[in-house]
Amino acid sequence: MEKKIAFITAAANGIGRATAEKFAECGCHVLMVDIADDPLRRLNECLKQKLASAEVFVCDVTRPDDVADLFAEISETYGKIDYAVNAVGGSVPGGEKPLGDLSFDEWQAELALNINSTFLCMSHEIRMMKAGGGGCIVNVSSIAGLGGSGSNAAYTAGKHAVVGLTKQAAIECGPFDIRVNAICPGAVRTPMLDVSFGGDPNFLTALAQTNVLERVADPREVAEPIYWLCSDTSSFMTGSIVTVDGGTTAIAVNAASNRK
Ligand SMILES: NC(=O)c1ccc[n+]([C@@H]2O[C@H](COP(=O)([O-])OP(=O)(O)OC[C@H]3O[C@@H](n4cnc5c(N)ncnc54)[C@H](O)[C@@H]3O)[C@@H](O)[C@H]2O)c1
Is 83 a catalytic residue? Predict the structure, then answer.
C-alpha cells in the first residue's frame, strides 16, 4: 500500500520532533522541515536506523519565497501530502516585554514566527490537498491561544490568531474533505521551555503547579493527540481546538479559589 505523506514543521526539536517520530513509527513517509540543519539531519539518521521513511528539508518557514520553493520541490517529488502539522512558533528574543515596552519590530517578529509561518505553510498545504482530494492539517497553538498571561502579548496574539485561522480554514476546507484542527499544549518539556526557564528548577516546579496533574508534559504526550487528529479515528473532527494541558485551562476560570 502507498505510504501516507506527512509534512511536519519544527521537526528538529521538541513537539515537532516527537510528532515526526510518531508519524514515522506509524508507517508514514515524513517530510521533516526545520531551520536548524544539524539536529534535523541527526534525527533523520536516527529514524533511518529504525528503518523509518523520512526526508529533511531545511527552510525558514516565515519566508514566503522559501516556503514556495519548498512546496514546489515537494509537489514535484511526491505530488501530494496527506497530513500536515504546522508546529513552528515560540518567542523571539526580547518578545516577552510588557505592552508599552514591546517594540513594533519585536511584535512583528513574534507574529511572523507564530502566525505568518502557519499561514504560509497552510496556503500551500491546502492547495496540494485540494488537488489530491483531501487531507488533515493540525496547527500547534498553545493555551496562550485561549487566554492571556503575564507579559507575552505578541505570543498570546499570535497563538490566538492560529486558533482563528484554524477555524476559518476548517470552514473553507470542509467541502474539499480537508479537516483542520488545532492543538493547544500547556507546559511541555522541550528546548523552548528550557530556554524560557534558563535552567532554574524552581521555575519548572512552579510551572508544574499550574496544572492538575502537577507535572510538565513530555513532547510525546502532545504528539499522540496530533497523530490522532490526523487519523481516521477522529474523522468527524474539524475546526476543533483541543487542549493538551494537564487541566490548566479547566481551573483557569476560578483559579484563585482552587489554589491549595
Ligand atoms: N514547549 C511548550 O511548553 C509549548 C507549549 C505550548 C505551545 N508550544 C508550541 O509548540 C510549538 C513547538 O514548540 P517546542 O516547545 O517544541 O519548541 P522547540 O524550540 O523545542 O522547537 C522548535 C523548532 O522550531 C524550529 N524553528 C524555529 N523557527 C523556525 C523557522 N522560522 N522555520 C523553520 N523552523 C523553525 C527550531 O529550529 C526548533 O527546532 C511552538 O509553536 C510552540 O509555540 C510549546
Answer: no
Instruction: Give domain status of residue 20, yes or no.
Output: yes
Instruction: Tell me how far apart the alpha carbons of residues 142 and 63 are, in angstroms, rounded to a whole number.
Output: 22
Q: Is the pTM of this model over 0.85?
A: yes
Q: What percent of the chain has pLDDT over 90?
A: 85
Task: Give residue 48's domain range.
Answer: 5-188+219-245
Residue 254 has pLDDT above 90, yes or no: no
Tell me, what CATH number does 137's domain have?
A: 3.40.50.720
Q: Which of 22, 31, 34, 146 to mutate to test the pocket of ligand 1 (most atoms within 8 A of CB)?
A: 34
| Residue 213 in domain | no
CA 68 to chain centre: 19
Task: Decide if 83 contacts 136 (C-beta within 8 A).
Answer: yes
Buried b (16+ CB within 10 A) or exposed e, 156-194: bbbbbbbbebbbebbeebeeeebbbbbbbbbbbbbeebe
Out of 35, 114, 192, 211, give the residue to mutate to test ligand 1, the one with the largest number of ligand atoms within 8 Å of its CB: 192
Q: Which atom of ligand 1 is the closest one to the Cα of 60? A: 32
87: CA distance to ligand 1 center in Å? 6
Domains in the chain: how many in total? 1
The single-letter code of the amino acid at 157 is A
Query: In this predicted structure, what is the pLDDT of residue 19?
Result: 98
Interval 11-43: pLDDT, tens? 999 999 999 999 999 999 999 999 999 999 999
Confirm or reject: Cβ of 191 under 6 Å from ligand 1: yes
The residue-averaged pLDDT of 105-121 equals 98
- The residue from 78, 83, 155, 227 that is catalytic is 155
Is 179 among the domain residues?
yes
Residue 201 has pLDDT above 90, yes or no: no
